[in-house]
Design goal:
The chain is of the alpha/beta class. It has 10 helices and 9 strands. 50% of the residues lie in helices and 16% in strands. The strands form 2 sheets. It has a 7-stranded parallel beta sheet, with helices on both faces. It has a two-stranded parallel sheet with strand order 4-5. Helix 6 links the parallel strand 6 and strand 7.
Amino acid sequence: MNGLAETQSRAEALLRAAGVLCVLTVDSVQQALSCARALADGGLTAIELTLRTPVAIDAIAAIRHDLPQLAIGAGTVLEPAQVAAVEAAGGQFLVSPGVSPALLDALAASPLPSVPGAATPSELMALHARGFHVAKWFPAAMLGGVAMLKAIQGPLPQMKLCANGGIDAASAADYLALPNVLCVGGSWMVPKDWLAAGAWDKVSAAAKDAAGIAMRVRNG
């Protein structure tokens, strides 16, 4: 198995195991650690911490060090330099909202599992031609939601997806029931006002509900 085939296999396994991938944006390392603990207490196993704030790389390193039971990866990966920074920080996977040629080269060469973003069948076909079979379908709800994902399952069954964008607790199960959806990503369990208030009990309860959704779908 070559390098990209191996990392894509790991990406598929990670997302399938996660079920629900929490997409988290933080303002401080301490906030990141407190939130990650609450998410883990609720039963979630993976966090996509977005590279949208200056503290993101340090927060990834801190979570990896303090909470090794969690899979911690980077989201909103936009350029090759960020791939290298996440690798150096100990991040465990990479997620992008889309790709450029340079970013796709960096994702393909990285030792980390990656989940490049796509929004059309043509983009999924281009990723598959490059050796990727795992992708982020984003923004899912705005692209047609469950109906669109059902439509692309037939011609593109080889592509396995993390559906993200506009998904919440009410719709997550419908996405997870689809055969081409490995997991759903979302931030409904970490709203900004809860993070600002340090409402970690609410985060933990929402994470428990999210983990329960994934378990119920898997168990039929």
